[in-house]
Amino acid sequence: MTGPDRPALLRLRGISLNPPGQSGARTGGRPRRVRHGGPADQAGRTSQAGRTSQAGRAGGRAAGHRRLPPARPAVGPVDLTVGAGELVLVQGPSGAGKTALLHVIALLERPDAGSYLLDDLAVIGLGDRDLAALRARRIGVVPQRPPLLPGRTALDNVMLALLYSGAGVRQRRHRALDALDLVGLADQAAVLAGGLAAGQRRRVAIARALAPAPDLLVCDNPTADLDPALTEQVIGLLAGLHRDGRTVVIATDDQLAAAYATQRLVLGLAGPRWPGAGAGADRTIPLGPPGSLGRSGPGEPP
Question: In the beta sheet, which residues pair with residue 267?
Answer without folding.
Answer: 293
